[in-house]
């Protein structure tokens, strides 16, 4: 999904270096990390295998190929990755039929970024078919562009998705604020040189340079995001 990119000059905090906001999807804007794990458990149960809950932190936030490959190896399931990927995506879409819960503060943050015409991109390891389905509820109008995990040579934890999003918005990655919920996503954003807000969903994330950890999107607003750029030279 691509739409007109807002002008980068429409920034509201005097002297702010913020040029764009790049947002993860699952577990950050929509409460779907549990959807994925439930689907993974159901699919492997149908194959005669039980998933260990301790594996959840391994598969969260990463590309489907990595998650599927790990689970096949861990369980010994006799199924090709390509076939498993289709089953997982199908199961996830079926879950969406029951409703798509947003994370607390997500709707308000998206509305605020839109109101002040801050260039915004959705950057996810999920496949395009899933992103487009989620955007029907989340609101495609809030994003100038979106980057899917099956559209880049290397997805998270590599920096490619965030570098592609910044380039698509005409922004310097160093002057982009990224909001993520997993270590995998944080690693990708930091490798791209972005300023990162971590809102942990499944596992803990420690604070670090260029990384601010918050308990919820409810504390993240435009003033907060501008503040991340204070020390960017």
Question: Care to describe what's here?
Answer:
- The protein is an alpha/beta fold and 233 residues long.
- The protein has helices at residues 33-46, 56-59, 64-75, 81-96, 106-115, 128-138, 160-169, 183-191, 222-227; strands at residues 20-23, 120-123, 145-147, 176-180, 195-198, 211-213.
- It is globular and about 55 Å long.
- Helix 3 (64-75) packs across helix 4 (81-96).
- It is built from 9 helices and 6 strands.
- Strand 4, helix 8 (183-191) and strand 5 (195-198) form a beta-alpha-beta unit.
- The chain has a 6-stranded parallel sheet with strand order 3-2-1-4-5-6, with helices on one face.
Concise summary:
With about 230 residues, the chain is of the alpha/beta class. It has helices at about 35-45, 55-60, 65-75, 80-95, 105-115, 130-140, 160-170, 185-190, 220-225, and strands spanning about 20-25, 120-125, 145, 175-180, 195-200, 210-215.
């Amino acid at each position: 999904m691509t739409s007109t990119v807002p002008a980068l000059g429409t920034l509201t905090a005097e002297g702010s270096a913020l040029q764009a906001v790049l947002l993860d999807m699952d577990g950050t804007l929509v409460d779907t990390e549990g959807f994925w794990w439930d689907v993974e458990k159901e699919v492997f149960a149908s194959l005669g295998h039980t998933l260990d809950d301790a594996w959840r932190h391994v598969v969260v936030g990463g590309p489907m190929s990595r998650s599927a490959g790990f689970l096949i190896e861990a369980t010994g399931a006799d199924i090709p990755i390509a076939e498993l990927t289709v089953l997982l995506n199908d199961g996830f879409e079926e879950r969406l039929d029951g409703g798509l819960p947003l994370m607390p503060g997500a709707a308000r943050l998206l509305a605020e970024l839109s109101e002040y015409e801050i260039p915004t991109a959705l950057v996810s390891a999920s496949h395009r078919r899933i992103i487009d389905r989620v955007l029907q509820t989340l609101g495609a109008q809030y994003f100038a562009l979106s980057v899917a995990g099956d559209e880049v040579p290397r997805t998270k934890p590599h920096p490619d998705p965030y570098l592609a999003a910044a380039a698509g918005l005409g922004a310097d990655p160093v002057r982009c604020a990224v909001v993520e919920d997993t270590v995998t996503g944080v690693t990708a954003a930091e490798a791209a040189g972005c300023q990162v807000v971590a809102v942990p969903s499944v596992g803990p994330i420690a604070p670090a340079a260029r990384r601010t950890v918050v308990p919820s999107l409810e504390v993240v607003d435009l003033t907060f995001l501008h503040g991340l750029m204070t020390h960017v030279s």
